[in-house]
User: Fold this.
Amino acid sequence: MARSPRAPWKRQNPRKRAGKASKHLSPAQKSAAKARARRAGRRYPNLVDNMRMAAKKTSKAKKSATKKSAKTTRKRKTAKKTAKTSRKRSASVKEKDPRGGLTAAGRKAFARKQGAHLRPGVTKKESEMTPQEMRRKGSWAVRFYGRAKLPPLVDAKGRPTRHALSAHAWGEPVPKTAAAARRIAAKGERLLARYRRAKVKA
Assistant:
C-alpha cells in the first residue's frame, strides 16, 4: 500500500533545503489568505491558505511570462516578414532600371527563373545596326507600340509607366501619347522591312 504524502507543515521548506531565501507574501496576498481562511472557518495565520496564495502568485507569473513570450514571438515573426518584404522590394528595384527596362541583374534573374536569355536593347543609330539588330529592335517596337490596344503610357499623376519607359532602354524617346507610341511602331516596321531586304540580298 502506497504511503500518503506528509502534510506540508510536517515537511522541510524546499527553498530552505535548496539553500534559497524564503519568499514572503505581499500585504494584499496576506489579506486574501486571511479572508479565505475566514470563509473556510480556519484560524489564521495558517500554512494552507498562505500556500494557496503563493501558488496563485506563481501561476500569475507563469501566465505573464507566457504572454510576454508569445508577444516576443509575434514581434520576431513580424520583423522577419518585414525584412523579407524589404529584401524582395530591394531586389526588385535592383532588377528594374528606374529609367526603363531591366538591369544586368534583372536579365540574370529572368534567366535563372524562366530560362529566358534576355539581351540589352539596341540603342545604335539605324546606319550602324546589323541586320539582326534591325530585326530585334523592329520586332520590339511593333510588339510594344504597334498593338491594337495600347496599355497605359502614363499613370494617374502623369508619370510614364514601365511600359512607356521601356522605350528608353531601346534608345527611343519615352512616349506619353498614343501618337508618339505609334511613331516608334512605324519605325519598327521600317527596320523590319530593311532587315527583310538585307536578308534577300544575302
Summary: The CA atoms of residues 32 and 81 lie 46 Å apart. Residues 47-95 form the longest helix (49 residues).
